[in-house]
Amino acid sequence: METIKTYLNNLFAGYPKTNEILRAKEELLSNMEDKYNELKAEGKSENEAVGIVISEFGNIDELAKEWDIPAAMEAKGDRISVSRESAEEIIAAKKQNGIMIGLGVVLCMMGPALTVLLGGILSGREDVRLDLFDIATYGDLLNIIVIIPLFICVALGVLIFIINGGKMERYEYLKKNIIELSESTREYVCACKESYRTTYTVTLAVGVVLCILAPMMLIILITLGQESDFISAVAVFLLLLLIAIAVFLFIRSGEEMNAYNALLQEGEFTPVNKKSNNIVDIIASVYWPIAAVIYFIWSFTTMNWGFTWIIWPIAGVLFGVIAAICNAVSAVSMKE
Predict the structure, then answer these.
(1) CB under 8 Å to 171, separation ≥6 — which residues?
(2) What is each CA distance from 158 to 26, 102, 151, 188, 290, in whole angstroms?
(3) For residue 123, what is the DSSP state?
(4) What CA–CA distance (Å, rounded) separates 305 from 307?
(5) Distances from the Cα of 222 to the Cαs of 82, 230, 238, in angstroms?
(6) pTM of the model
(7) Degrees (nearest 5) of the Cα angle 28, 34, 39?
């Protein structure tokens, strides 16, 4: 029976893992198991039963007509045909992905923000002695307390990334394959995109305004607070909070628009940009872990958590430059 399961997995290897395809695969496996058990009951050997089942169910073209497998989504080399139902599923999944990824990023940003805020609240109390088994000073314990939110928030954010990433693996073909839509499905996706365009524009505008207000608030509060560590900490906290909200809005709205663009093969999902995105993904898999290592080493060696957060906006800008260079190189190579 394991031979049949392995054969079926290989048979469906070229198809994307959508709910429709998975349901068809499970139903087909159930029928193959029934036929296998029937043959075994008739006295057939293991090899005979497997051979007969595969010969009856092994033609993917005939199965397509009988089980309506590719009516939902059919792979043709690097091209995949997407139905209306599958398009709706993709759009809904990308919306949910935008919320979850946005929440994960917010948590990762709020970790340093809370650390800075607690550091400002508890600053100036290191000289107070706490007799805890005569081992640690109050200042030592404060240092531990201050970084606890950082690890909790980052851990939760990473957990969200991992769980959500696993759910979105089935849609990786959107980044690599050429998507084909029927005329009616294309009209539906275009209508959804046009309906969302105003909301998308307003959301981006709000995010941009928050990004502009954030440094202004930082400058104003620090100027008013003068030498106050507490005011400076509150200013940095509000800066990161506003930026986190803006980033959430960018990601949430961007993921939904990406769903429409991916299905319509527009924007960053054109064949040229898909090639460059594959290169950017490879670079990102190395770039961001290195940035995280630098951040933690710098932070723990200096214990200056109120300043080391600056590495993230710098890393973001540099990565944007790298991505732009990759896009330009890919565009030139495609023309050649």
Answers:
(1) 16, 90, 93, 94
(2) 32, 12, 10, 35, 16
(3) T
(4) 5
(5) 54, 10, 12
(6) 0.61
(7) 125
The 3-state DSSP class for residue 321 equals helix
Using alpha carbons, select from 237, 239, 242, 241 the residue that is nearest to residue 117: 237
Q: Which residues contact 264 (CB under 8 A, 6 or more apart)?
A: 179, 181, 186, 189, 190, 193
Quote the CA–CA distance of 217 and 310 in Å, as a whole number: 17
Burial of 35 (0-12, 13-18, 19+ CB in 10 A): middle
What is the rounded distance in angstroms from the CA atom of residue 247 to the CA atom of residue 211?
Answer: 9
* Mean pLDDT, range 165-173, rounded to an integer: 80
Contact partners, residue 54, CB within 8 Å, separation at least 6: 4, 7
110: nearest Cα among 162, 161, 151, 160: 151
290-307 pLDDT, tens digit per residue, is 887 887 788 777 766 667
Can you list the positions of beta strands (E) in the chain? Answer: 73-76, 79-82, 178-181
Look up residue 28 and give its two tokens.
């087909």
Using left for φ > 0, alpha for ψ between -120 and 50, and beta otherwise, residue 63 falls in alpha
DSSP codes of every residue in 277-296? HHHHHHHHHHHHHHHHHHHH
- The pLDDT value given to residue 202: 94
> Going by C-beta distance under 8 Å and a sequence separation of 6 or more, which residues neighbour residue 142?
122, 125, 126
* pLDDT tens, residue by residue, 6-19: 767 766 655 555 56
127-131, 225-229, 329-333: the lowest-pLDDT one = 127-131
242-280 pLDDT per residue, tens: 888 998 998 888 889 888 988 888 777 765 555 555 566
Poorest-pLDDT segment among 1-10, 37-46, 180-189, 327-336: 327-336
Under a CB-based contact definition with an 8 Å cutoff, are residues 110 and 244 in contact?
yes
Instruction: With H, G, I as helix, E, B as strand and everything else as coil, classify residue 122.
Output: helix
Three-state SS letters, 164-202: HHHHHHHHCHHHHCEEEECHHHHHHHHHHHHHHHHHHHH
